[in-house]
Design brief:
about 400 residues; alpha/beta; 3 domains; six-stranded mixed beta sheet; five-stranded mixed beta sheet
Length: about 400
Amino acid sequence: MGQPFFFLIIVRRVDVLDVKDRIIQECLSKNKTGMSFRDIADKYGKQREFVRSLYRRYKDKNDSVDISDSDTDISVSLDNKLTSIENLLGSDRIAIQSLREEKRQIEQAKSALGRTSVLAEYIQEALSNLDVYKRSPFKEIVVKNHTRVGIVQVSDFHDGVIVKPINTNGHNEYNPQVMEKRMYKYLEEVVMYGQMYGIEKLYIYGLGDFIEHDSMRSNQLASIAYPVVEQMLHFEEFLYNWLVDLSRYFVLEFDGVGGNHDRNNGDKNKDIAENNFSSLILHMCKLRLADNHPNITFNYTFNNQSIIKNILGYWILGKHGHDDQGSKVERLKDNIVMDGKDITYFLYGHLHNFKVETGSRGKKAIGNGCVIGSDDYGRNLVHSNANASQNLLIVEKNKGIIAYHEIDLQSA
């Protein structure tokens, strides 16, 4: 029985190679036949980018490649720069091999496009053909408790950074896998507290520093797992899966802002506020969620730098916090004047430490911990050896925030 099965495998492999050879021949003669890459792709039941990539790899071994195509709507030069991004978002989600080349191409694309919002349009187009990693929606939850809700205060993931134990005197170790492990421990704790308080709805304040970047500091390339493009892709994939898993237990309403590590330019003196990678991350996540998950409301506004929501009668502000120097409860007064709302609570991240600061008439500023925990930068410059933690706040109608839970994640 084993020999015939082996023979079928050989036949199938030959057939696959034959199809690729025929596609290459079609591409070589497309100028004579008048066929475009899209025509060839349709003929063989493939995607256009598959045909283009196959042809490019063939030509790279021989001479320069002509990738002109009559059905391409943008210039050949710009299309070349976006090929890297489209390949990263391809149907198989292949792991990136040439890390530095991908960084070079995204920097070129960023320079040519000028604005992050334009780049987002091309990522949206690439995602429109993505049919993997789409999770099935869970059964819709009906909210019956309208007097008590939870606030998930999350920030400072710094996804992509590597912290070695030797850099923290053995206190902490961090990498993308540890990040996911810690956040799923946090999910379990949120579910436990949710059941304890009888909560059916969570408001999620995503307060920035989702990724680490790769050029915030001159020595940073030695402490990152992969460059900024893959950091964005990995965190978006994590965020999507994490939200869908959490929506098994609660109705969710998500809002997010960027941080200082999410900004496009590593040099803060040359930073343009709207060019923030968090805009792309959140935009991609919103596209993938679409309308397929009835328990998730994903609020996304391009270049959003603050969150202001009325939750059970209380105005609650959320920001990353890097632009609010000094006492956060004093900065709350400035935001009340600017926004014209009687804000009671100011939620922030950035400082990597849980803190509750009380002002007049019950107003409070609530600092969140971090997922990353301590690192060599914090230990050496700000003398911080913070534990990894994230906040869960419980809000009750006519009472405000009745419980502050700093959930420890260091032991995850």
